[in-house]
Design a protein that fits this description.
The protein has 45 residues and is mostly beta strands. The chain has no helices and 2 strands. The model has no long low-confidence stretch (mean pLDDT 83).
Length: 45
């Protein structure tokens, strides 16, 4: 799954339809300006 959001200023929210994902832990990569981080996403359908 890949979703690129660009040209945003301030705080942004992004909704992901998790129906296509099985239960489990996923890592989400987030990049903003010159920084990058990985965050955990827990799915329990």
């Amino acid at each position: 799954y890949n979703n690129v959001v660009s040209s945003l200023n301030g705080t942004a929210s992004l909704e992901v339809n998790t129906a296509a994902f099985g239960n489990g832990m996923y890592f989400v990569n987030v990049a903003s300006n010159d920084s990058k981080s990985s965050k955990k996403l827990m799915i329990k359908n």
